[in-house]
Amino acid sequence: MTTVRAEVRVSGRVQGVWFRQSTKNTAGQYGVKGWCRNTPDGSVEAVFEGDEAAVQAVIDWCKRGPDMAQVDDLQVEWKTPTGEFDRFQVR
User: How many whole angstroms separate alpha carbon 46 and alpha carbon 33?
Assistant: First the structure.
């Protein structure tokens, strides 16, 4: 099992559509830790740490998001995992 860290920014209609809570639920299903939050520019940013396949599954989910979301762009930066998280949080 390879642990990875992905820093993600999702743009589109992603605020006010349960994107953060749905991301938390999805991350929990895969055992991914980290956080997500709204940003002033209307996007959502997130940090995911966990098994490589699990993190990729959460990123793939973020490409479409919950039913009411419209994802226009998703950017991913792969970083070195820090192991700083003990759960997934909405900030």
Answer: 10
